[in-house]
């Protein structure tokens, strides 16, 4: 590998997020009035790149915007993210996320890909000689990124939004170093791979630990380290190369005043996690830092 100084390539989405504050998440067939509206920069790729830069990590963003999103590129650059690989797609709008925020801190999100759908695939081996780490999500076409996973970098995958069952069954899981999912995503993944139902809302230690062990025994996952985020319950994680299938837990810290908004918490966790890996910190320190900062959701959308 030609790169010496740790640096991460984030290949993912760049969005403009539109926030609607509501008494509760809209129900099917219901029309309600928003109490507040805001438009901010976002996208899982951009949020995670921003968080990585905020944590002191060297990071470049690889994504696409429309002409209406040049200001988002400028914000990323000012935050310390390299933007030379951000492409302008003249005929498209920048990706959109329509985000409902309820008074109890929950959210619901609708995505429009826009320019994100135009990120090019590579038929030849892309030049990643400047990078040691690759961070990807699932808000851009999956086919455009698969080549990058085979280039020998430390690959971190946060499959959100979750892949389809057919994509899950054909994805090259063995190419990953780290997989970061929440409990619902973990259960969905296992259900798709095994054709057996797994409870998507069971956060009990017994259920999550069992799901992580089952995933570890699934073909392609034998050497993949998996982190499962559990919201207020902290995280569970399995390091197959160190713990021989033992699941570890770490509780979440308490947030003074309670959680106001969970939007961006997962992206903040992931970005800080990658920065910690690049800084060669001890894993316990990395995870504790991630949970602390993600409780405040320092995402790009909060700039």
Automatic annotation (TrEMBL):
Organism for this UniProt entry: Tremella mesenterica
The molecular function GO annotations come to: ATP binding; metal ion binding; ribokinase activity
Which processes are annotated in GO (biological process)? D-ribose metabolic process
Q: Cite the Carbohydrate kinase PfkB domain residue spans from the record.
A: 11-296
Q: This protein's superkingdom?
A: Eukaryota
Q: Which InterPro entries match?
A: PfkB_dom (IPR011611), Ribo/fructo_kinase (IPR002139), Ribokinase (IPR011877), Ribokinase-like (IPR029056)
Q: What is this protein called?
A: Carbohydrate kinase PfkB domain-containing protein
* Keywords (A to Z) from UniProt: ATP-binding, Carbohydrate metabolism, Kinase, Magnesium, Metal-binding, Nucleotide-binding, Potassium, Transferase
């Amino acid at each position: 590998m030609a790169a010496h100084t740790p640096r991460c390539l984030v290949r993912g989405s760049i969005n403009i997020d539109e926030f609607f504050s509501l008494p509760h998440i809209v129900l099917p067939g219901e029309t309600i009035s928003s109490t507040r509206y805001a438009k901010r920069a976002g996208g899982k790729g951009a949020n995670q790149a921003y968080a990585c830069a905020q944590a002191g990590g060297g990071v470049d963003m690889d994504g696409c915007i429309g002409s209406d999103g040049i200001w988002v590129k400028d914000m990323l650059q000012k935050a310390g993210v390299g933007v030379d690989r951000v492409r302008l797609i003249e005929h498209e709008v920048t990706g959109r996320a329509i985000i409902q925020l309820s008074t109890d801190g929950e959210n619901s999100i609708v995505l429009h890909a826009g320019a994100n759908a135009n990120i090019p695939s590579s038929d030849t081996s892309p030049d990643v000689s400047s990078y040691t780490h690759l961070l990807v999500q699932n808000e851009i076409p999956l086919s455009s990124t698969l080549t990058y996973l085979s280039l020998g970098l430390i690959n971190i995958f946060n499959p959100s939004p979750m892949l389809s069952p057919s994509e899950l069954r054909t994805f090259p899981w063995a190419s990953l170093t780290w997989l970061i999912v929440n409990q619902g995503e973990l259960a969905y993944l296992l259900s798709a791979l095994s054709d057996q139902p797994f409870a998507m809302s069971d956060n009990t230690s017994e259920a999550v630990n069992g799901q992580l062990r089952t995933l570890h025994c699934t073909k392609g996952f034998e050497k993949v380290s998996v982190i499962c985020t559990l919201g207020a319950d902290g995280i569970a994680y399995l390091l197959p190369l160190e713990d021989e299938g033992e699941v570890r837990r770490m509780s979440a810290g308490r947030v003074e005043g309670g959680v106001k908004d969970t939007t961006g918490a997962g992206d903040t966790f992931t970005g800080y996690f990658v920065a910690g890996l690049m800084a060669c910190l001890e894993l316990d320190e990395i995870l504790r830092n991630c949970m602390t900062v993600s409780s405040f959701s320092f995402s790009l959308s909060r700039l």
